[in-house]
């Protein structure tokens, strides 16, 4: 699930290793990359750009096409990092897992941890790759819709966990998108994603076990389905329990429903 920068440095030239740079330009401009990294364009090529909501999961056919264009094969060992430490990489990990690929890992600490160890970086690359044979096998249980969330408000069969900040969750701080009210989905609980991280890396398994104590399947949500995956991966490290993501998250909920406060 996660790999250290020391592990990657030792395996950098392994035959089946594919390193994906999932950095978001909107958060921090990319200026260099880990050697041999391939840029994973999350907002452009690996999101459903026809959706009115950001970061929407693409179709299996779109994901397969773009993954093949990056030279990814069914037997590839995929290592994903971003230049924030741990931010967008877990979303990409979740996407590959949802598309049926098991040998996929997040680089703990990302590019900052790599640079802290003074490992070599290189200039950004726009290389073209030989087409891979990656086959997407989408797991529908990995993703939840607004309909699923509405059903869960009544049934409470799953625990909905929100990764946004406490202020946004409680409605005391504004949303980054001016058109959205802040608040939270009825029945949800708040675990800000920063709680599972320390110095840009995931906390230890024992610490994460103390944060997550699941009695039900867990559904993770956030502003747009991205930082929810930071929590999902943390929970995966801690517990073997059913997990999924509300893909539209608060953006979809706040734009389409009047239920904007927790209860």
UniProtKB/TrEMBL annotation:
Which InterPro entries does this entry report, sorted A to Z? Rhodanese-like_dom, Rhodanese-like_dom_sf, TST/MPST-like
PROSITE patterns, per database record: RHODANESE_3
Name one matching Pfam family: Rhodanese
Report the GO molecular function annotations. thiosulfate-cyanide sulfurtransferase activity
Key word GTP-binding present: no
Query: Can you say what this protein is called?
Result: Sulfurtransferase
The record's keywords, sorted A to Z, are: Repeat, Transferase
Superkingdom is Bacteria
Annotated Rhodanese domain residues: 13-123, 154-262
């Amino acid at each position: 699930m996660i790999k250290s920068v020391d592990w990657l440095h030792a395996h950098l030239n392994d035959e089946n290793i594919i390193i994906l740079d999932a950095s978001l330009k909107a958060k921090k401009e990319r200026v260099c990359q880990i050697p041999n990294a391939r840029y994973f364009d999350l907002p452009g090529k690996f999101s459903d750009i026809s959706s009115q909501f950001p970061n929407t999961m693409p179709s299996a056919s779109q994901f397969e096409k773009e993954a093949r264009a990056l030279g990814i094969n069914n037997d590839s060992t995929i290592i994903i990092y971003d230049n924030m430490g741990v931010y967008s990489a877990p979303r990409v990990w979740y996407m590959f897992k949802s598309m049926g690929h098991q040998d996929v890992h997040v680089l703990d600490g990302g590019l900052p941890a790599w640079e802290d160890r003074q490992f070599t970086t290189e200039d950004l690359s726009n290389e073209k790759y030989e087409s891979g044979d990656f086959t997407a096998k989408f797991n529908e249980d990995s993703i939840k819709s607004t309909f699923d969330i509405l059903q869960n408000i009544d049934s409470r069969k799953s625990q909905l966990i929100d990764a946004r900040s406490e202020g946004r969750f409680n409605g005391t701080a504004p949303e980054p998108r001016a058109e959205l009210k802040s608040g939270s989905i009825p029945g949800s609980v708040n675990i800000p994603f920063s709680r599972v991280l320390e110095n840009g890396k995931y906390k230890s398994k024992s610490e994460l076990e103390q944060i997550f104590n699941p009695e039900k399947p867990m559904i993770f949500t956030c502003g747009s389905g991205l930082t929810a995956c930071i929590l999902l991966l943390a929970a995966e490290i801690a517990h073997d329990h059913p997990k999924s993501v509300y893909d539209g998250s608060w953006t979809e909920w706040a734009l389409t429903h009047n239920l904007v406060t927790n209860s």
